[in-house]
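Supplementary Text 2. Reproducibility record for the structural model of the 342-residue chain.

All settings were left at their defaults, and a single model was retained for analysis rather than an ensemble. We include the record here because the model underlies the residue-level annotations in Supplementary Table 4.
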Amino acid sequence: MVRDVSKPNAGRVPGPIGSGSPNPTSLHVGPMGSGLAPSPGASAKPFETLLDDAKEALAKASASRRNVEHFNAVPPASDRSTKSLKVVDWPLFRNRNTSPPLWDDFTQSNLLLGCALAAVLRSLALTPAGQAFINRVVTQVPKNKRGKPVSVELDYTKVTRDPNFVLPKGSTSSRILKDDRYFIVQVGGRAQKVSSVFYTDDSDGVVLLRYMKSPKDVLWASVIEKAYVQHLGTQGYAALEKFFYPARIWKDIVGKLPTQKHLARASNAEITRIADKANRIPTIATSKPLRQASSVTPDHGYSVHDYSRGKLVLSDPIDTKKVTMNIKEFRQNFTDFYYGMP
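Retained model, structure tokens:
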């Protein structure tokens, strides 16, 4: 059993939203519907890469003959953190695979600038409609131990070149990890197959999930995160550092654009109404840039919970603490709402 526990570790300040630049002094909330940057031109592959590609093709052909689901490890981000790969046997949801996803099931990793994705997932888990949506788009294969058995192999040959990668315990020359389940996630209009192998760190004897974490030992958020990373292309988890416009992520995950409301054009009554419906309509709020947001993390996505006793209730996906503030404070720290039914 892998145990994800909280412990201090060096990492990035969470954020930013809506910019491809790693320079925090030039970040801003990005426009709705921004697309992917054009791909760089193709270049000649080194011999080592060609050899790995040939091995991968042979592994896929062999797996197909043996009726095995074959996966390749998703490349890690360039975060300079020690990491390995491990088959994680946690259930999708708390009551195995039947209970609804809950907002405090997961927290955002401080190694990635992926706050918009985490905020959207949390906002979905805060509402009955969002919970039902998550249950629909994430499926485990097989669904239970009585289902038709499956064989899964994950090839991690290519990621061994990462200087911070530590070979899994019991690693063999085949560079294959095996399991008896995988997941199917509907994202971006397509079905993504996702293995149950995730990046972990157990360098000090305590195992931590490296990216989307779970204090409750459930996998649904990590599975959706990896499915979205696969949807973005071949860059692996590093893609989350480049494509994190809130509206674009919302559309990819939910299937349609959210409504965006600029706070500068919203009355106090509108702010109250939107926040008051956040426990029924998934809603996130984006904070102001550096040096303008005084009470919250700048350039960051927050999930909106509710409006209670004259204050908005929010949470930062980096942890499970709730933040409350009145409308004046909210205006001083935030720029926009994004909201909509799945």
